[in-house]
Amino acid sequence: MRSGPEAFDSPGVRALAEAQQAEMLELYEGEADIGPARVGAMFEPPDGVFLVVRDDDGAAVACGGIARFDETAAELKRMYVVPAARGRGLGRRVLVELEQAARDLGYARVVLETGDRQAEALGLYESAGYARIPCYPPYDSRALSLCFEKRLPPLEQR
């Protein structure tokens, strides 16, 4: 398996993002994503990055991105592992690599929103040191949203 940054609007990445959204629509019985539209420029330096893990055959099997939230924070977006590749630690791998990318881009923390029905995601974030915070707009108006934050240690403390 190899991972690295890819353009968010490339066909393989769009397929992963669309599969993630389709799974969320089913899990939340048609409740759609209420955040801002995701566009490729959000996930490009110096504001962000979008990472993709590809298997040995080149198929995209996991992804996630960070985008600027504010001057000191990145927001984690579109974390996803295809069902056939789950249970192999790929979500954690993407999360660790995105946290490193956030540090490299100068962010001091990462924030995220996830849904209350995503037990595996909640377990991943909590085990990785993310703490619950009050939800930020637009998620503060939706009962199923849970928001988290992780403060990133400075580079010299790694």
Commentary on this structure:
- The protein has 158 residues and is α+β, with helices and mostly antiparallel strands.
- Helices cover 26% and strands 28% of the residues.
- It contains 3 helices and 7 strands.
- The model has no long low-confidence stretch (mean pLDDT 92).
Question: What's the SSE blueprint?
Answer:
Blueprint (H helix, E strand, L loop, with lengths): L1 E4 L5 H17 L21 E6 L5 E9 L4 E9 L8 H15 L4 E7 L3 H9 L3 E3 L11 E7 L7
Parallel strand pairs: 4-5
Antiparallel strand pairs: 1-2, 2-3, 3-4, 5-7, 6-7
Q: Tell me the overall shape.
A: globular
Strands of the widest sheet, in order across it, are 1-2-3-4-5-7-6
Mean pLDDT over all positions: 92
Care to count the β-strands?
A: 7
**Approximately what portion of the residues adopt beta-strand conformation?**
25-35%
Defining traits:
158 residues; single chain; alpha+beta
In short:
The chain is 26% helix and 28% strand. With 158 residues, it is an alpha+beta fold.
